[in-house]
Amino acid sequence: MPVRVLPDFLINQIAAGEVVERPASVVKELVENALDAGADQIIIDVVDGGRTLISIIDNGCGMSRDDLACAVTRHATSKLPTDDLLNINFMGFRGEALPSIASVSDMTIDTNNGMDENGWQIDCCTHEIRPSDWESGTRIRVKNLFAKTPARLKFLRGDRAEMMSVLDVVKRLAMSRPDVGFVLNNKWRFVKGEDLLSRIQAVMGSDVAGRMLDINASSNSTVGMTLSGFVSEPTLRRASSVDQYLFVNGRSVKDKVLVSALRAAYMDVMHAREFPLCALYLTLPTNAVDVNVSPAKTDVHFLEPAHVRSFIIKTLRDRLAQTMVSQNKVELSLNPENNFPESVSMPRFDFGLRPVQMPMMAGSCLRDNLGTKIASVEKAVKEDVGLPSQVVDNTVFIDLPLGRVVGQVANKYIIAQKDDNMVVIDQHAAHERITYEKLRNNKMKSQPLLTPIIVNLRDEDVMSIVSIADELKRVGLYVDAFGDDAVAIFEKPSDWDLNWSDVLRAIADEVRAYGHSSQLSEKLHLKLANYACHHSVRAGQKLDFAQMDALLRAIENTERAGQCNHGRPVYKFIPMSEIDAWFERL
After folding, report:
1. Please, which residues have CB within 8 angstroms of residue 146's CB and are 6 or more apart in sequence?
2. pTM, whole model, 2 decimals?
3. Is domain 8-189 classified as CATH 1.10.10.10?
4. Confidence tier at 277 by pLDDT (50, 70, 90)
5. Which CATH class is domain 399-586?
6. Alpha carbon 231 to chain centroid, angstroms
7. Which CATH code for domain 195-320?
């Protein structure tokens, strides 16, 4: 069979198979074009899930007649001023979207650049251009999608499912540009110019209010990176990754490096089958990331993926690790009075509740012992609570985040009061987190082996293992190549009796797929989590007031205190107003 050059219409339809997978793909490409044109208000209308009509209206810069004629030809774009594919600063750049969409639909474009006497309209089927009364910006109407390729049409899902896919695309675009307004079918509205937290709440739902943690960090490496945005508290999670929004240089991506970094950061605060919410924006030089990977532009390649991953993990873990005390501004004061009457109140801790007068004592006794008592209180506060202290008016003022212990319920929950809130603390979950963090902060002990363990592997597996040898050392596993087809283990984590052949093969598979491995880190997490669970205060164990108070003070200074290492909440605040409502005290 002779070699032949394919006709243009068939080339465009083949390209459409890569670019235009479903109606949502059309919406994505056309809205990205509108954003590149400088639009700050975009109106999207979709009929029958996108089969019958997709209409995109924007208030961008519009096009001249010549630009409009050129825009619907293959590989024509205004977004590559130079020939450098590593310097891409627009959402689109391939010049394939418009001709590909036109090849599988009936598409018309109305546009006006504000400088011509009138607007222009092109029928993409006939390529005929005529004057139009369109006043500003651009309107693109895509009718009868896939009517020219019935085989593609029959693979579309139902109208409702396609509409949900379109909504997901619009949400991701809305998250990428909070400064831009979006309207979908006059039903879903995202207000122009709203702040990121408001946009997050509009996209993810009202349950995220007050439960997102801000992220803002920069990398000190030669490849300058910044990570900003918000992630959810570990106790706010979803059953799927539907509310995970990841962006690289403003582009929404579903990159495996970013996804795995997010999972690793939450590994010891959330169950493996649950997913955190996030809106994370990674910014790095354009020459450090390749966006020319797939036609859909949802995948990227990083120049240094391991560095990107470690930067994200460290940033998120540091934010999740902030203790309750470090997030509360605390005032602590203990000044003795100049004159001591015959009966005064003893130094006391003020927990943000109503002042509690301690038993009266003779002034003569207090004169002798007040200085000693104040010093001992200051020392206890500094050592046990970890807060700065000073002496003011004979009272220690501490804003203890979990308040003062009131009692214990069912030998399972500790009840405390903090301001106008009742605080319920799960004693097992609290102690489990404390125990886990102490274990995790201790350096992993490694056991040198008199005789190395030799594991025979394929050549490519050996290269994969050796490439992350430094990463494996951090969990106590020292390995090196033993010839071309084997790996030698010289040291291993103490008390770890594993099938090292299976473990190393799994690690090698993960390295080849993702460029890194979390196998041993996950095994370490499970080992420590199980130990912490079995060596902590149990539900049903009676505690006295001193033990309960010590537990609360310890969890306040523990990293990731809001949840145990299985992801269950450690404490809950119940506003007194809510309790009053239960008893109709309004």
Report:
1. 51, 104, 105, 152, 153, 156
2. 0.75
3. no
4. very high
5. alpha beta
6. 4
7. 3.30.230.10
